[in-house]
Amino acid sequence: MYPKMELTQGRAMEIYRALGLADELRGLGVPESERLDEIITTGLGESGHLITTWKRDSPSEIREKSQEQNDGTFPREPYLRCHQIAVEKWLKDKISKQDKIKSFWGWRFVGLQEGETTG
């Protein structure tokens, strides 16, 4: 229906790490050893031409570089390539299993009116 995210940045992965979820989430994505280069073309058919390639290190390579240059230049967690649809399903399943979280799927928030609480 509309484009969805497919690259979770390192800072977001740090939040997943703080919640104890990063390792499990990484299991849903592209293996850490794979480079994440992106190609930009005029098309995918035989008549398509390469415009440029964006070179992206693999998450494993980023981990190695961050250990060699441990000065805050790199995020604590490397990025993850995983489609948002898979992440959303995984998170929904996680939330649904939590006793302390009340979830409402299929509802829409239309507004909030603040005032005195009665009763």
From TrEMBL:
Annotated stretches, region: Disordered: 55-76
Ranges of biased composition (kind: Basic and acidic residues): 55-68
Protein name as it appears in the record: Uncharacterized protein
Origin species: Exophiala aquamarina CBS 119918
